[in-house]
Input
Amino acid sequence: MSERPDMIDWDTAVRLGSRVGGDGPVVSRAEAAAAVTELREGAMRSTPMVRDFTGLVAPDATAPVLVVDRAGWVQANADAFATILAPVVEVVARKQKKEPAGVVKAVGAHVAGAEIGVLLGFLAGKVLGQFDPFWGRDGRLLLVAPNVVHVERELGVDPSDFRLWVCLHEETHRVQFTAVPWLRDHLLAQVTELAETMDTETLLNEGLRRAVQAVRSPTGSLLDAVSTPEQQEIIDRVTGMMSLLEGHADVVMDGVGPGVIPSVGEIRTKFNQRRKGVGTVDRLLRRLLGLDTKMAQYRDGAAFVRHVVDKVGMAEFNAVFAEPANLPSKDEIHKPKAWIDRVL
Output
């Protein structure tokens, strides 16, 4: 981590994030070993299922599968954040009028690391799995064992069915990024473009006021609060792309599910209810951090994919992965016919 930009203390982020995330549910050594084994096997089983259902062909044995605890997920995402935020850090450093003093710089880096650590710690208790496209050449698939065990217990569903269901969703993301290699660079390009639009002085001077407005708003998020119209245009492009990817994965997990997961209907019903959040504080944090928007991506993206596939079939739908110009806009996610007319 010492080679990373020193505007953010990543060691602090990892330490604090791991502490905030906690250990997860209490399990015996045998239960933990069984969960890890089943998740690894579920990821391997999912590969041909996803390929047959989607028609997307990803090379075998490219992105590794890692079954991790919450601290491992925090570490992996600090790695990913460092890559994603590098363009932002570069822009901020370039636009600074003068280099801050050593002590001031160190304190600022520590504070930034602490803020990211708290965010990672909160998310570390929520995420079941994730494909990290920014690790190495091919990315890596992360499955967070304690969270999977926690949720399957909370929902009261069959553990084996639930674990395979989760693996199907995350394996779909692995296939998306490895079968369509330009996706990674396109996503990073959007972050870079967003960074270039940043006015750091305005962000610092206006950010707090806008953040307070977001807290008071029934629908606002921090991201909406601090973005300009130009930045919002880029964010909308990313929203369209992420809605597609998340919705596609949800359609695959539910489409493949009935043939191999007997209780998939029960799992989906209970899981959708859980996605709404539990408790006032949890709902507030989800909204401010944009997680409500993330939930909408699953729902709206899945509706888009189902509509297009129903109209033209999966093979024609896969034109969406041919080139960046074929990705749906945020508006087209809600108007799939407009995407069909434009692309097909």
Notes: The first strand starts at residue 65 and ends at 68. The chain is about 70% helix and 5% strand.
